[in-house]
Amino acid sequence: MAPHIREAVGADHAAVLALNNGAVPHVNALDAARFDALVGYATYFRVAEDDTGIAGFVLCVAPGTPYWSDNYAWFAARHGAAPDAFVYLDRVVVAPRARRGGVGRALYADLERFVRGRWPRITLEVNLRPPNPTSVEFHRRMGFVEVGVREYDAGRCAVSMMERPV
How many helices (H) and strands (E) does the chain have? Predict the structure, then answer.
């Protein structure tokens, strides 16, 4: 059964935060206050539901937002902070039970419909150190290309900076 994609609501936050923190180190852990702040910056925040509940989520931030992410800042430096420069896909997580079931593709299809006509590109990063080869391959299949690599934490961590025109 295809997942149902809908706007996230306050009642979803506890489940989404648990899903996020269960995906560490592929996304960074958040406490409730930091999560609420991130949701406040979100220009797009949707969940995928299946028969057993929330199967995934995606959250994006538009340029010009005072968001604390160094990866977001990297794309703002590359494309500028104009409101129509890009949309930054900050995090996407699919529940382990729902992986390889079309949830990620459904979330991205919904995102593309939302982005089309608003921003010329979707930007994101994927971990290289610690490695996340499944996500790198998924994003390549979805048409994203690497436009840079950002290392941090004295070289212990690295991300592939990726984008795709819409």
Answer: 5, 7
Give the contacts of 83 (CB within 8 A, at least 6 positions apart): 62, 63, 64
Q: What is the pLDDT of residues 32-89, one digit of tens each?
A: 999 999 999 999 999 999 999 999 999 999 999 999 999 999 999 999 888 889 999 9
Residue with structure tokens 């390889």? 100
CA distances for 44 relative to 4, 9, 50, 111, angstroms: 16, 12, 20, 8
Residue 62, token pair as written in the block: 């538009």
CA–CA dist 43, 118 (Å, integer):
11
Q: Check: CB of residue 125 under 8 Å from CB of residue 162.
A: yes
Residues 127-146 as b or e (16 or more Cβ within 10 Å = b): bbeeebeebbebbeeeebeb
Residue with tokens 């852990």, as numbered in its chain: 29
Closest to 69 in 3D by CA, of 50, 43, 55, 88: 88
Does pTM top 0.85 for this prediction? yes
Could you give the C-alpha distances from 54 to 8, 18, 29, 142, 158, in angstroms and in order?
A: 10, 11, 18, 22, 29
